[in-house]
Amino acid sequence: MAGAKRLFKDESKFVMGEFWTAKQRQGHSLHHTVSYRASFKPELPSFFMNQYLKKKKSKVLDPFGGRGTTAVQANIEGHVAVHNDIHPLSIFLAQSRQIVPPLEDLDKKLKSLDLSGTYTEEEGDERLLAFYHPKTLAEIKKFKKYLKEDHSPEMQFLGLIALSRLHGHSTGFFSVYTFPQVSIPWEAQKKNNLKRNQEPEYREIKPRIFQKMKRDLAEPLPPFYHEFSKNNAYILSSANAMEKIESDSIDLIVTSPPFLDKVDYEGDNWLRHWFLDIPKNQERKLSVFSSHAEWNSFIAQTLKESSRVLKKGAHMVMEVGEVKKGKDILNLDEDVVRMAEGTGLLWSKTFIHTQQFTKLSNCWQVSNNEKGTNSNRCVVLQKR
């Protein structure tokens, strides 16, 4: 640990402050089309784009693309995005917003879909009927078929909206009362139904899709959005092996890796995977780590690959938190700096975003800068 103490001796490299608001839903409404666990606010990539990009039409990469926050924000600010992720769900969430059709075109497409008919039970429906009325489930299945066959921008965006309405805690969702961000196990949902004395009621999906879509598109996009988004790249690969991205081609990286074993992306999204026909893949669980040493090894590989794709002098921002392991608090930003040694990336500074958390954060038992992954610790590295 002696090396670690020497490495962090220079306190001038740590910058603390409230660099963006802690308020919810402050970015463009397009960001809030769909929720996704462990996503950062659009204000975070926006802050660093303004810090480190000197010109428009720069190329911005997120190796752990998630729901596409960095990609969407890059296009909003006049840059081209490269969205990389190992999860097919992530690729869909981002790519379905590459082209955002006008509301009138989307409404026309939605009205053209014939979702009528009777429900026919199929194998595996027991778990789905814990969430949906049979008639609602029949409509969702018919919508799924259209989505699979029609790859137009209109249908893909409608698919994103429908995915965002699959389950939640209000009548605006397709499901009976349940958790909105996480697909809980169907057995747990059956118990909840008994506890709440509820049964799935019929909820027509078309009007719910339209109302959500109308809200999400209420704020106009910048007129140049599609000028940049049309040149985006969406790549399905691990962050430590981004072979499809050319060396020395990226102007800025803004990303946030998985925080050890804090999020089960596979289990939390099982209903969304069913909706998009994404098969189970045990190898994708390699992006969730139970070992601190394993996490560090993966981060070192990712930093080396990020160095390869960055232009000389360009910056990488990796946002991490502090994680409680037993009685110890692990400041993962310190690990990132250590793992960067020998990769061609030089530690520039670390921004520690301090904030007062909102009621939503407190619902997740996140306290103010005390425990969990609750502080934004953004390590800035520069390619030599």
From TrEMBL:
Belongs to the N(4)/N(6)-methyltransferase family. N(4) subfamily. This is site-specific DNA-methyltransferase (cytosine-N(4)-specific). Keywords: DNA-binding, Methyltransferase, Restriction system, S-adenosyl-L-methionine, Transferase. Its EC number is 2.1.1.113. It catalyses: a 2'-deoxycytidine in DNA + S-adenosyl-L-methionine = an N(4)-methyl-2'-deoxycytidine in DNA + S-adenosyl-L-homocysteine + H(+). Transmembrane segments: none annotated. The keyword Nucleotide-binding does not apply. Residues 250-350 form the DNA methylase N-4/N-6 domain. One of its GO terms (molecular function) is N-methyltransferase activity. The lineage of its organism: Bacteria, Pseudomonadati, Spirochaetota, Spirochaetia, Leptospirales. Signal peptide: none annotated. GO terms for biological process: DNA restriction-modification system; methylation. Gene3D superfamilies: Vaccinia Virus protein VP39.
